[in-house]
Amino acid sequence: MDSNSIYEVLARVKVVATDVDGTLTVDRGNYLIHEDAITAIRRLEENGVKIILVSGNTIPVLFGLSRYIGTSGPVVGENGCLVGYKGEIIPVCSKSTRELISLILEEFGEELTQSWQNRYREYDYAFRPKVKSLEVHKELTERIQRFLLSRNITWVKVLSSGFAIHLIPVDAGKDKGLLKALEIIGVGRDYVVGIGDGANDVEMYNAVGLRVAVANADELLKEKADLVLDEPSGKGFAKLARLILEAKKKNTW
Fold first, then answer.
1. Who contacts 143 (Cβ-Cβ below 8 Å, separation ≥6)?
2. 146-163 confidence digits (pLDDT tens)
3. DSSP output for 80-101
4. Edge-to-edge strand order for the sheet containing 75-77?
5. Could you say which of 43, 109, 123, 135 would form a disulfide bridge with 93 (CB–CB 3.0 to 4.6 Å)?
């Protein structure tokens, strides 16, 4: 996408759909929301741009984050399996991966543990490698997927967010959850910018008009992005917000 096309989307955008961990935080692997990202979210909301949180986190976590940061759009949790809006929770997936928890722990229990959020999950279940590195996440993700396929379990995909490894029904996806959220608020994808940092954000790109990656995003995401920012994580989100507000104000590139 050329610079003029990017500007056109930025100038007309009504929604920014954003990943949370690694995109709004101080850095990848850090859970602190960057203060610049919080300020940017509030400025966008004040200027009529709704923020939709799209995450592998649970709906309760996202409801709390939305309330205290100040986002007005729906929240999309469990990597697209659930959409929450104004106290209502709408399922998008049809089958839960809960039944596979014991199988995974039996095979990989020495290398990973359950996420504390699993007690609040309905469809997408998460595990944390005991060794914290992106390389370990990638290697374990691939091994778990091969293990499930060896058991003829083909209805599950395994994705790493860089924070956790998720077992997700194949009918799930951040794009599917986001499209449901956009349907609820009546906004078309051409008016949506999507921003993320991880490989699990690639699917979200299918539901947006402009695909944006922060500077420290996975290489796969950068390859798919229309715009790669020159700032990482939360600072990158803040940079995107400035570009949007400048485009809306000047209406020239």
1. 108
2. 999 999 999 999 988 878
3. GTEEEETTEEEE--S--SGGGH
4. 88-91, 82-85, 75-77, 50-54, 15-18, 192-196, 210-213, 227-228
5. 123
Cα–Cα dist 194/50, whole Å: 12
Q: What is the pTM assigned to this prediction?
A: 0.91
Which CATH architecture group holds 3-92+172-250?
Answer: 3-Layer(aba) Sandwich (3.40)
Domains of the chain by residue range: 3-92+172-250, 98-169
Single-letter residue type at 221: L
Q: What is the mean pLDDT of residues 172-190?
A: 96
* pLDDT score for 253: 40
Considering only CA atoms, which of 147, 169, 165, 149 is closest in space to residue 157? 169
CA distance to 31, 44, 147, 171, per residue, from 154 (Å): 32, 41, 11, 11
74-113: burial string, b at 16+ Cβ within 10 Å, e else? bbbbbbbbbbbbeeeebebbeebbeebeeebeeebeeebe
> Burial level of 248, CB count in 10 A (0-12/13-18/19+)?
middle
Tokens of 251: 């209406």
Amino acid making up residue 191? Y
Helical pair 233-250 and 3-12, crossing angle rounded to 10 deg: 80
Backbone φ/ψ region at 114: left (φ over 0), alpha (ψ -120 to 50), beta: beta
pLDDT at 252: 47
The CATH class given to the 98-169 domain equals alpha beta
> Is 19 assigned a catalytic role?
yes
Reading phi first (left if > 0) and then psi (alpha if -120 to 50, else beta), residue 79 is in left
